[in-house]
Amino acid sequence: MRVHLGALAGAAALTGALSFVLLAAAIGTDFWYIIDTERLERGGSGARGPAGAANHSQLEPLSSHSGLWRTCRVQSPCAPLMNPFWQENVTVSDSSRQLLTMHGTFVILLPLSLILMVFGGMTGFLSFLLRASCLLLLTGTLFLFGALVTLAGISVYIAYSAAAFQEALCLLQEKTLLDQVDIRFGWSLALGWVSCVAELLTGATFLAAARVLSLRQRQDQAI
Predict the structure, then answer these.
(1) What b/e readout covers 2-22, taking b as 16+ CB neighbours within 10 angstroms?
(2) Closest Cα to residue 139, out of 213, 215, 64?
(3) pTM of this prediction?
(4) Which of 10, 111, 215, 222 makes a 20 to 30 Å CA pair with 190?
(5) How does the average pLDDT of the chain come out, rounded?
């Protein structure tokens, strides 16, 4: 079956644009990590008597959702996370410093993947325009490397979330309260995973196009 370069170019453009848009949306949204305290608050309200009902009604919901840059409460404005690159005048524990290092790692890796996709899009456009197999090969390698960077960033974020949870466990007095708190990853992280897969497909498509064009050029030279 003969594969047309036009079809490969269209597939590469579609998956490349999809991966860029999804990763940009993931980085810009604040639903990577969700803490839902509705069950805890509902149970607490049921346990309170009439004397504590008035005070409880004034309490702010504790549920929150976090992104790469800030955390947001239900009825409060979003607050930025601690700057991981400015720790000189701040005294923190070793575990907190490790968390800041991990935070700084994934906030560098994920935007770096976006930058790689921009350069890959430009080289990909030129490679199909000039019909240069070497440039197609370079573009495919660039997208595969970008997918690896995205995967590394997401993996570091998951490890960061697990370490932050363990840190919270150490600081929390009543650990049984966590049984009534729903903690989960959100749809922003899912967008990042889909973007990583689309980026891999884009790189594979460019490599396939480089192979097809190289074989076609050899056939033309043989004739």
Answers:
(1) eeeeeebbebbbebbebbbeb
(2) 213
(3) 0.84
(4) 10
(5) 84
